[in-house]
Design a protein that fits this description.
alpha+beta, 108 residues, globular, 19% helix, Aminopeptidase
Amino acid sequence: MVQQGACILAFVDGQALGFAVLEYSFFGHGFISLVCVAVEHRGKGVALSLLMELTQRCVTQKLFTSTNASNASAQSLFSRAGFMRSGSVENLDQGDLELIFFKELRES
């Protein structure tokens, strides 16, 4: 994925802090399928920086991402990055709704 440009990495002084993945398999739109930051680097803006970089790199007009309803931290992160809630999917994780988030990158 890194060689294909789908995954970006965050480094400081040669130390990997986290990564994020941008794909285009979500109905032809950009979809951030994974954002992961090392525990010791959470809450320091790494995930937000990764999201903002993928927002800049996304080549589609619409960008989506998702998280479980139980993941308040990710929901807050997406809100800070300018995403708005767009819907939900049931039955991916039993008893924990998957929330879909959306960000319009360019006007139609």
